[in-house]
Amino acid sequence: MHTILGAGGPVANALTRELQNIRETIRLVSRRPIQTSGKTTWQKADLLNFDELLAASKGSEVIYLTAGLVYDKKIWAQQWPVIMQNYINLGKETGARLIFFDNVYSYGLVDGPMLETTPYKPSSKKGEIRAKIATQLMDEAKAGNIKASIARGADFYGTEDVKGVLDVMVLDKLKKGQRMQWLGDVDKLHNFSYIPDMGKGMFLLGQNPSSDNQIWHMPTAKPMKGIEFIKMAAGIYGVQPKYMAASKFMLQLFGLFDKMTNELVEMYYQYNHDYDFNSDKFEKAFNFEPTSYVDGIELMRKTLYRMI
Fold first, then answer.
1. Confidence class for position 307, pLDDT limits 50, 70, 90
2. What is the pLDDT of residues 258-267, one digit of tens each?
3. Euclidean distance between CA atoms 145 and 19, whole angstroms
4. Which CATH superfamily, name and number, covers 2-156+192-221+278-286?
5. Can you tell me the distance from the alpha carbon of 61 to that of 113, in angstroms, rounded to the nearest whole number?
6. What's the rounded Cα separation, in Å, for the pair 188 and 194?
7. CA-CA-CA-CA torsion sign (198, 202, 207, 208)
8. Higher pLDDT, 147 or 254
9. Residue 301's pLDDT band (cuts 50, 70, 90)
10. Residue 138 in contact with residue 151, Cβ under 8 Å?
11. Residue 132: is its pLDDT beyond 70?
12. How far is CA 31 from the centre of its chain?
């Protein structure tokens, strides 16, 4: 059985589809009900409650953690260490392989490509929390107490409910006939992970025990300048590349009235410096070519946004 903790989010949904394609037995675990069928079942459990998690995870071969907490550093500081310790304890209790889906906040500002070997030098409170729990997990794996890996993705796009920065500020604006927005400097490099590719990446790690006890960057197309993204997306939608760039000052100003925006201010360094997420290790190991931005955005234009 493959168990997904924190089910219901975009990465969990993409992973679920991959597992269903080969008719795996899947247990989705979340606080809110999820409609299921066939060999996929749902069980209620709180990630902060170990007994509930254990009851939901017994018999698992692989346990994935794909949770996304409320975007609030205070909540992260309170809950992530508890969730990670529960996850580690599940690995010890069940013997299941653990695969944790993570982001790049722990690296902080990186001069050059972000690699799996890049040291943790967080530039934010959220990054400090992420670095702590990632270290917490991999230290247990290095000690031989569990079998665990980390799968990391860059900023994502391709969600069904318009959550990623590229989805919200560029693609959804184009869908609605509005002017695009760009966070930060349009002349800096940035790359984005396509949600279906992250689901496939997590799936491949789950199918290959030889990938255990490592950090893996999920397959992601090479970075482009922001202005190149803007022109490319506008071309796909057949409109003029009109946009507005959002500065840190604008975020700070809007953050006075919107908590989510305020929480994003400390991450602004990712958008006014080059952001080069490298997934060569995964691509070579699994002979996997990431979806190009042109193909990913075109697929979204034709299919995903019809679901919203």
1. very low
2. 777 888 899 9
3. 27
4. NAD(P)-binding Rossmann-like Domain (3.40.50.720)
5. 34
6. 20
7. positive
8. 147
9. confident
10. no
11. yes
12. 20
Domain ranges of the chain: 2-156+192-221+278-286, 162-190+223-275+292-307
For the chain, helix, strand, coil in percent to 5 are 45, 20, 35
**pLDDT score for 223:** 97
Instruction: Enter the tokens of residue 198.
Output: 């992250």
Beta pairing, strands 2-5 & 26-30: parallel
Candidates 32, 34, 192; CA nearest to 20 is 34
> What one-character DSSP code corresponds to residue 171?
I
Higher local confidence (pLDDT), 306 or 95: 95
Helix pair angle (73-94, 50-57), 10° resolution: 50
Mean pLDDT of 131-151: 98
What angle is formed at CA 202 by the lines to CA 233 and CA 31, rounded to 5 degrees? 95
Q: How far is CA 205 from CA 32, 61, 216, in A?
A: 27, 13, 9
C-alpha span between 11 and 31 (Å, rounded): 17
Beta-strand relationship, 97-102 and 62-65? parallel
Tell me how far apart the alpha carbons of residues 195 and 218 are, in angstroms, rounded to a whole number: 10
Mean pLDDT of 39-58: 96
| Residue 47 structure tokens | 């990630």
